[in-house]
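Bench notes, afternoon.
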Amino acid sequence: MVLVLLLAFSAVHPLPAQVHASERAGSLLVNGALGVATVGVRQVITGQFSWRGLAQGAAGGMVMSAGKQITGTGFVGSGLVGRQVNAVGISLVASAHKDTLVLFVPLGPFSLEARPRVERRLRPRVDAADFAVLLYNLLDGPTHLDWGATLSAGAPVFGRPGDQMPLGYDAAGFALMGTVFLSDDLEWTVSERRRLLAHESIHVLQWDAIRQLVSFPVERAAVQHLPVLRHAGRYVDAGILAPGMMFLVASQIPYEKHPWEREAYRLTGR
């Protein structure tokens, strides 16, 4: 199914030649294995083993890889399309232990959960931490929202002076949770800008997976024990666990060895 998806897509938007076929195949295998591992850990915790669930986890992981590879092509709208394909893969992995599929549709810091087999099929949600980042930068003077890049990426994209990039990084591009920042100081060609945007957009897809598969389930389980927050927890995710987790991991690994960076570079031919 995943190979058919990529072949059909490449017929319309040829995948960049800089990315070798072995890199694409490796991405499918690695993400498929991560999908299996995610479902397997959950099965160990719940004590409910299922071959079907493991197979669904593998399929979901490979669909996530397809979404990242589509994003990496860098055509106008690749991030938007790739993010939704990636979200289908996340939904397959997240629902592997459930009786019904819960589809996750990301829209910036907002998302829509669709449950086809229940009475209230649609539920809007917001990541509070991600929304705070968006709101802060909308109000911040040196930062401006790039509407064209935002629509293409399927996530908020801001232009910002190079010496004022988030967290003090003097870089051409940076992804902070689900928001992308591009430096205003560099003179890019159109192709260079698209490739950089594709790289940072892949980080947004990786962030979606971390939140939906790791941090949000933990946060939601904790909220269920707090009566005051239980109702709000049906629509709002605090979104504070994932940033803390990633900061701790990133601080222990040199930049050039970050697995998420290596994946983004490989899938954009850099």
